[in-house]
């Protein structure tokens, strides 16, 4: 780049970037189950412990979001892409649904929410899964290692 050229002012943020930001958020601010954010955190608390989906929402919006429907168009698309990458990873590593002996789905709550809320789940498992999902997204979508 020549000294007279202006450097790019925008950088594309990928679903992998957002998943890593969500993992970092959980590591720094804590993890919770059964709701997007710790139900005991005051509504005006900016960095409450979050579930996996809540952390992805904060990574996308840059602030606490009570429900993904509150996100604007571009941010909502980023949220859904990151959440979709997370679900794809979970589906290939630890399916989040139960199947009976005949192969029929018996638990239709196939979501990262039910996976996050499993009573046996730990914060470290959630953080590790978010990071691994990011690595998998990069592996599938990277071109020569660049995002």
Automatic annotation (TrEMBL):
Pfam families: DUF6197 (PF19698)
InterPro entries cross-referenced by the UniProt entry: DUF6197 (IPR045677)
Name of this chain's protein: Uncharacterized protein
Organism name: Micromonospora deserti
